[in-house]
Amino acid sequence: MTLIGHEKPRRAWMQACQGDRLHHAWLLAGPSGVGKATFARLCAAELVGAGEGAGSPSPDNHPDILALSRAPADDKEARNRDEGKPFKRKRNISVEQVRTLQRRLNTRPTLGARRAIIIDPADDLESGAANALLKSLEEPPAGNVFFLVTHRPGRLLPTIRSRCRVLRFDRLPEEQVRQVLAHERPEVGGEHLDTAIAGANGSPGAAMTWIDEDLARVDAAMRALLRDSVRSAEHRGALAAAIGARPTPERLAAVFTLARRLLAGEVRSAPAEARPRIIEAHAALVDLAARAPTANFDPGLLAMQIGGLLASAALPREAA
After folding, report:
1. pTM for this structure?
2. Straight-line distance from the first to the last Cα atom of the chain, in angstroms, rounded to the nearest whole number
3. What's the domain count of the chain?
4. Is the pLDDT of residue 98 over 80?
5. Which of 184, 221, 125, 164 is nearest to 29 (CA)?
6. Which of 105, 142, 173, 192 is deepest in the core (most CB within 10 A)?
7. Within this chain, do residues 223 and 297 fall inside the same structural domain, yes or no?
8. Residue 42 belongs to domain spanning
9. Are 112 and 33 members of one domain?
10. Quick one: pLDDT at residue 54?
11. What's the rounded Cα separation, in Å, for the pair 217 and 242?
């Protein structure tokens, strides 16, 4: 694991580790894809001494690093995960998952005096799961340190936020995004790399998704929809073709993220009278993205719906 940038939260963590009492819960807040989960794993590894000395387990299989995220959607998807294949996840982190975790917390750490718990992202906790987790944050078992990764901290219970020390993560400058990609995607270069960085908006994770999912055609079709309301049907067809007939869940998630980012940019640059229409399209897109992972949408129709929402936000040709 390599972390580039984020010197300020890194200094705050190191200073806390040097103190007499380490806070038991940390909220890692910032945009998606900037490195919060990597930071959490590095801190967790330091906390439990993973990979230190001969015979010490690596962070990926250390018994005192517990990671909680959305589970596979069903048994079939669980088998896909176990076989290293793409798999669909449940919509939320469930209360059953949190309660299973809590049973582990009531035991002593396996190899040392501390245990690290990473919840990524904490935004995905369902209501019952959030309330169950709150009990552990209110009365933390000795030796357990929580790292809650969040892209939207406002979605968390105020009582959860109040029990965490917050570390804030900003978007990275372009040069640092380039450094991350040189390490993570060394085979990519030239115009493809430059386009990924330009579309990432300071998020190395977004840039890697752009590369992995080959989003250049998707981006071009979406921008055409936002710029040319006259040929909307043609551009919607091009968008459906660019998304593909059988997109993976990861690809669809990337498509929704890209569409939301483009609309957010449109709001900032559009005339005041056009902003309500764009905001309405953005809200509908957020709702559609939330339903898509668990609904049985036809991919072609879903692509057309996304295109329709983008088209509804487009400026008329004379205004553009």
Report:
1. 0.83
2. 45
3. 2
4. yes
5. 164
6. 105
7. yes
8. 7-168
9. yes
10. 62
11. 6
